[in-house]
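Hi V.,

You were right to ask for the full record rather than a summary. Here it is.
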Amino acid sequence: GLAASWLGFDGISRNEAARVRSILELRADWRTADLQRKILEAPNLVMDAAAFIASSADPRPGEFRSFLEKKHSTDDTVRVVLWAPMVKHADRAAFEAEASRIHGRPLRISHPGGGEGPQTRWVDAPEQETYTPILLHVDFTGRDSLLTPVDILFSPERRAVAMRAAAEAQALATPPVTFAGAAAAGPGFNVYAPVFPGGPTPSTPEERRAQVRGFVLGSFAIKGVFDKSIAGTPVVAGKIGVYLSADGGASRRGGGPGGMK
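Predicted structure:
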């Protein structure tokens, strides 16, 4: 009788343990899925900006700012949104003249000339086949920053991510970066959203890379994104591991070849 009672109790205990494990695993899966969904929502304003640029033949700074400020909400985690068109070397002088005109001061396409992060110095970009200089920007950090037409693809690493985004016709996030002039923000990442000329998106990766009109770039502080993602969720005793890829394609967002045009 005692042995039978013990075996029965042991069976109940094992069943209860299995039930508890199942509940905990379900909660962990829900928490992971909820966190992933909220992180993937972070670039929504970048995608909105790409759609706006795609529908505008000649967007102006005031129009760009007005559109984004109307779309921006207080819990958006994006720090800065930029539009950088592709510019051939033969068109460099014309671009610099137009950028200087619309911003009311002399501007030249720039590259980093030394230093890193907040200590970065900007110098005239050397001659190259194409440039991707910032033409429009909206800063949501509260800084009164003047635009510098920095070539956002000045490094091979940046160019690799952006051109992969163009080839796949979808937005891609970079590995962690340090923002120039914003050391207090901590590490962050950029999201590149390609914009194509009007009409159907080019059908092959090669055609997309050749025909991409430019990129909308959004900058995010990692801490800000995760603080927003876990806000309002129940407190649990546990750890969440977050792994950031260093392969130039940490995360994706977009609709495939039918994405931003």
